[in-house]
């Protein structure tokens, strides 16, 4: 919090109840105080007390977020939630403001600038949600700005102030964004000889596509989907239906709101020209006329109606505007865990809307061992995102993944070192195996020396995995300095 006279008040993290007590006590004493609380995984609330008349107070928030992959290769998507839509159901008890309607928010506007830095020249920057101005080159406030490559830096700003009626989305394309990377951060206290590391990679498993699958498409037709959202859902469904694998596939379309219905009440049907035409006609008549958003019951009924003996992929098309996050995630997690190894269940999400609940959509995909893609209400080309969802759904489930950093001494500082026999047992299996390359499909993993991060010079990474209940041998990847 920054006061009008320039005084900066730095916040600190406390347990929620203790933080409230400290805030309330400060307000009662007549002091200026502020409190920020996480009311929901994607909803934060800031309270400011005892602001003098005509006093201006600036609230400054700093947070870190992960950048998700977009449908194009070497492309990432930055999503800044700025709009809270009306949500169905009862808010958590800890939520002191119900967020029941966006009309209760005073008119506000968004204006910001963004600095971008990539490891390779920037190929494209675009925003499907707002009109932006783009200027290539580094921020002039950066040190040694004259020595920096202008092609790897950019500054983005809104062309004009924007109302807080939809989230801001920006996509960035640059060579090498799909490459593995590792971010390391030292402990701020020098006396702590520890480092936090985050490894990001997309393993290149050479796995066969799943055969004899069932696809259940669950469409949100609640009132919050009215207008552009249900229109976007119809467009996405048309693309998805025509992209389903033709050979030996079953499929079903289910709609939900206050209740749920199925296109074919008797169960999924084989994918052929006749059923495709029936499904397409059904999609053309879809409207957002199903009432509330009882997504948990709809998921439970979809899981109960699946065809046993086949791998089943459920695709949920929704804006996620419901408060029942914990109940939904528990339902998905339980069903996925209970599915047999030879007929696993997976749940993926296509989040639709300019104010989609990222907590709901990303949460379902995470516990459902699936994939999530987000589309705005005005986006028209869904081909790439639908293709990614289907490709992921047709890939066998990977389980029991472990990473050996090749640093036993560091591992001992965190937890007892596991016996070497644990890894030898995995490598002894000679059953169905998958060759893995975490760098590039064209690179031989046994000879690759690509560098993942300067923090991992002269190190190696051992990755273990198995699929479809078949143990697979481990692969070792070495990295050395250039």
TrEMBL record:
Residue ranges of every copy of the VWFA domain listed in the record: 214-393
SUPFAM superfamilies linked to this entry: vWA-like
Source superkingdom: Eukaryota
Xref: InterPro entries: VIT, VWF_A, vWFA_dom_sf
Protein name per the record: von Willebrand factor type A domain-containing protein
Xref: Gene3D superfamilies: von Willebrand factor, type A domain (3.40.50.410)
Pfam families registered for this protein in UniProt: VIT, VWA_3
Residue ranges occupied by any VIT domain in the UniProt entry: 1-65
Annotated organism of origin: Mycena maculata
């Amino acid at each position: 919090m920054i006061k009008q006279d320039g005084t900066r008040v730095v916040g600190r993290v406390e347990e929620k109840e203790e933080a409230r007590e400290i805030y309330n006590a400060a307000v009662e004493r007549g002091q200026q105080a502020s409190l920020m609380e996480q009311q929901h995984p994607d909803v934060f609330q800031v309270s400011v007390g005892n602001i003098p008349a005509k006093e201006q107070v600036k609230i400054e928030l700093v947070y870190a977020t992960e950048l998700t992959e977009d449908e194009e290769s070497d492309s990432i998507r930055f999503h800044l939630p700025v709009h809270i839509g009306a949500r169905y159901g009862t808010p958590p008890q800890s939520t002191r403001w119900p967020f029941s309607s966006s009309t209760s928010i005073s008119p506000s506007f968004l204006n910001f600038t963004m600095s971008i830095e990539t490891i390779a020249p920037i190929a494209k920057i675009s925003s499907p949600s707002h009109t932006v101005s783009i200027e290539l080159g580094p921020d002039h406030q950066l040190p040694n700005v004259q020595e920096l490559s202008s092609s790897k830096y950019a500054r983005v700003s809104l062309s004009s102030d924007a109302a807080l009626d939809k989230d801001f989305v920006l996509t960035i394309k640059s060579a090498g964004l799909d490459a593995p990377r590792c971010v390391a951060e030292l402990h701020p206290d020098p006396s702590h000889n520890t480092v936090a590391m985050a490894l990001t990679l997309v393993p290149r498993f050479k796995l066969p596509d799943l055969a004899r699958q069932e696809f259940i498409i669950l469409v949100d037709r609640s009132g919050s989907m009215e207008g552009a959202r249900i229109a976007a859902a119809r467009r996405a469904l048309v693309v998805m239906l025509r992209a389903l694998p033709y050979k030996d596939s079953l499929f079903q379309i289910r709609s939900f709101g206050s209740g749920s219905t199925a296109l074919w009440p008797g169960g999924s049907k084989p994918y052929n020209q006749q059923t495709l035409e029936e499904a397409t006609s059904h999609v053309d008549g879809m409207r957002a006329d199903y009432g509330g958003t009882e997504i948990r019951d709809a998921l439970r009924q979809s899981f109960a109606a699946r065809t046993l003996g086949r791998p089943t992929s459920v695709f949920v098309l929704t804006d996620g505007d419901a408060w029942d996050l914990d109940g939904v995630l528990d339902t998905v997690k339980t069903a996925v865990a209970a599915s047999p190894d030879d007929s696993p269940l997976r749940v993926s999400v296509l989040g639709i809307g300019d104010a989609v609940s990222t907590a709901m959509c990303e949460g379902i995909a995470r516990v459902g061992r699936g994939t999530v893609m987000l589309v705005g209400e005005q986006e028209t080309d869904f081909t790439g995102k639908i293709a990614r969802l289907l490709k992921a759904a047709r890939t066998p489930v990977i389980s029991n993944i472990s990473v050996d950093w090749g640093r036993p001494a560091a591992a001992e500082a965190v937890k007892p070192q596991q016996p070497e026999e644990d890894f030898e047992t995995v490598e002894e299996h000679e059953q169905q195996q998958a060759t893995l390359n975490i760098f590039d499909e064209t690179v031989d993993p046994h000879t690759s020396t690509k560098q993942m991060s300067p923090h991992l010079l002269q190190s190696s990474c051992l990755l273990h995995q198995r699929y479809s209940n078949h143990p697979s041998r481990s692969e070792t990847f070495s990295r050395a300095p250039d």
